[in-house]
Every structure is written in C-alpha cells, then in structure tokens.
Amino acid sequence: MSIQDIYDAVVEFSIDKVVAKVNAEIANKTEVSEILRNGLIAAMDEVGQRYSEGEFFVPEMLMAAKAMKAGLEVLKPLLSQGDSDKKGTIVIGTVKGDLHDIGKNLVAMMMEGAGFEVYDLGVDVDTEKFLATAKEKNADVICMSALLTTTMPSMEVTVKAIREQGLSYKTMVGGAPVSEDFAKKIGADGWSTDAPGAVETARKLTAK
Ligand code: B12
C-alpha cells in the first residue's frame, strides 16, 4: 500500500479505489499534504500530460476529475479543520468561460480550514458576480482561479474594474497557467502555485 496506489487509481478513474486508498493512507497517518501532492494532484498532471499526447480525451479527463474529487471529499474534514479564529472574508470562483474547479475547491477548503469565511461562487463567474458578492459579503479578498490560457484575461478585467470603481478589495489569482509575472502584470495583489501558498498569501493580505 502506498501513495502510488492513489495516483494509479485516479489515472484508472476508479472512484472506489481512490476512496479506499485515501482512507488507508489516512489510517496509516500519512501527511495529508503528501496524499494531495504526490497522490491526487500528481495524478491529474499525468492525466493532463496524456491528454496533451492524444492518449486521453475530454471524457477521460472528466472521469479522472470525478475520481480526484471523491478523494478530496475524503480529505475535506482534515483540510477544513484547524484554526477557528475568524480571519478575513474571501470570495472565490473560477473565472468566466472556465469550468475547472478542482484546484479552486482545494483552495477554498484550505482557506476555510485556516479560519477564513469563504464564499465559493463556483465556476464561470464574471466580474459583475465577483463584485456584487464581494459588496454583499463585505469581502477582504477576491480569489480567482483559471486553468485555461484563454480565460486568464478575464482576471485582468476584474482587477481593473475594482481599480476603476475605487473599491478596496484585494485580489489573488491562481491556477496552473497563472504565473507570478502574470499576476504582477495585471496588478493582482497576490498569487500562489498551490493551496497552502494561497492561504499564506491571504493571511498576509488580510493582516491588520
Ligand atoms: C480535469 C481537467 C478537466 C476537467 C475539469 C473537471 C473539473 N470539475 O474541474 C474537464 C474534463 C471538464 C476539462 C475540460 C477542458 N479542459 Co481541462 N484539464 C483538466 C486537467 C487534467 C486537471 C486540472 C486539475 O484539476 N488539476 C488539479 C488541481 C488541484 O490543480 P490546479 O487546478 O492547478 O490548482 C492548484 C493550483 O493551480 C492553485 N490554484 C488553483 N486555483 C487557484 C486560485 C487562487 C486564487 C490561487 C492563489 C491558487 C490557485 O492551487 C491548486 C491546488 O494546489 C488539466 C491538466 C493539468 N495538469 O492542469 C486539463 C487542462 C487544464 N484542460 C485543458 C483543456 C484544453 C480543456 C478543454 C478546453 C478541453 C476541450 N477541448 O473541451 C475543456 C475546457 C472546458 C472549460 N470551458 O473549462 C488544458 C488547458 C490548456 C491551456 N493551456 O489552456 C489542460 C492543461 C490539459 C492539457 N494538457 O492540454 N478539463
């Protein structure tokens, strides 16, 4: 039994096996971060690679995503337990035109675990929705996720709208194709390659 079994189960699209193997690793006291990084997330990178090589198509990506999500559900109670001190308020969503939500969900779960109040708007979220929710919930930070290079530009639209309307929300951007350079270029306040980094960045941005 090993982390490799979790990786293999995702690449084989076996929901039952993913759930069983993640539970087994938890029972084994394996670090959650290791299950995530070397098991579930590494497997999704493999799936993306196989898609790029023409070995997998959209249905396979979707089946792997379902298997990964089943694994995340098992981990969720462990990811969202922790700091109960109320931190800032976060509005998070995947940007307009983009339906990828696994990474965004993971960021939301870890933010919750770190004590933030999180409003998750789901996928395909436009600027108006981000801003309307941020106003309604009196948010500190708007977090935007994008997995497609074609949807990244809408992050800039939101950042610009905040500036132009004289609003004070901080912005954080992330997702596989989003780089620190891109974040700086569009004027976002924060960026991170992964969910733990997203929590760290949100802590810094909301530090009073
Ligand atoms: C699963 C998947 C799908 C699933 C998504 C299911 C779901 N519910 O999410 C489905 C099948 C729907 C799908 C569809 C498509 N996909 Co797809 N997909 C993937 C795949 C294999 C995995 C993504 C994933 O979940 N990774 C795991 C998570 C945990 O990682 P993550 O999202 O990067 O998140 C982490 C960090 O980025 C960061 N993070 C994420 N969000 C945020 C936000 C903030 C604020 C911060 C700070 C950090 C942060 O923290 C996260 C946790 O550590 C990727 C390949 C890849 N390696 O990325 C392709 C990939 C993203 N897809 C791709 C493509 C082309 C498509 C389609 C266009 C295919 C098609 N022809 O229809 C469609 C687009 C649909 C749409 N409109 O969105 C391409 C994108 C190419 C590009 N450069 O734009 C990729 C890279 C595959 C490839 N190698 O070509 N896809």
TrEMBL record:
Family matches, as InterPro entries: Cbl-bd_cap, Cobalamin-bd, Cobalamin-bd_sf, Met_Synthase/Corrinoid, Meth_synthase_dom
Q: Which GO terms describe its biological process?
A: homocysteine metabolic process; tetrahydrofolate metabolic process
Q: Which UniProt keywords apply?
A: Cobalt, Metal-binding
Q: Which family does it belong to?
A: Belongs to the methylamine corrinoid protein family.
Q: Name one GO molecular function term.
A: methionine synthase activity
Q: From which domain of life does this come?
A: Bacteria
Provide the B12-binding N-terminal domain boundaries.
1-87
A cellular component term from Gene Ontology for this protein is: cytosol
In what residue span(s) does the B12-binding domain sit? 87-208
- Any idea what this protein is called? Putative cobalamin binding protein
Concerning Pfam families, the annotation shows: B12-binding, B12-binding_2
